[in-house]
Amino acid sequence: MQLQPVLLLLSLPGCVSIQGPESVRGLEGGSVTVQCHYTPGWETYKKWWCRGAYWKSCDILVQTEGSEQEVKRDHVSIRDNQRQHLLTVTMKEVRQSDTDTYWCGISKPGPDLGAPIKVTIDPGGAASLQSRTTTSGRAGTSSGSYIRCV
Hints:
Elements: H1 5-11, E1 15-21, E2 23-27, E3 31-38, E4 47-51, E5 59-63, E6 71-73, E7 76-81, E8 86-91, E9 100-106, E10 113-122, H2 126-131, E11 134-136, E12 143-149
Parallel strand pairs: 2-10, 3-11
Antiparallel strand pairs: 1-3, 1-12, 3-8, 4-5, 4-9, 6-7, 7-8, 9-10
Region (Disordered): 125-150
Signal peptide: 1-18
Protein name: Ig-like domain-containing protein
């Protein structure tokens, strides 16, 4: 049996990753939820959600405190399910101007870990919002990840 290269890489000691959807879409006025998975060992580290094309210089919008407690800031919330290694970010009352590249990330000594997600907000009216207010990062998207071995 041959292992996929990514699975082999993740099984090596010292390799860590965080992975999210490549892109998500939402309707103006609604909400967008993104879920990012991370490898075991990073449960108590702070996780963050930032906006900007380059993760090293992006603007952190919200960040956990290393616990499972939900943190809200403006129209953005973040929650870390440490048992499932799952980071969930929800952006509410989104506007077309929210269309951008965002990052799920883990704060750690040295360079942080991050996974880019392209968020696109489409124009929408009240009628269309009733049928589709949330776009999850899990539906109909491919995954993108940033992997670093330390």
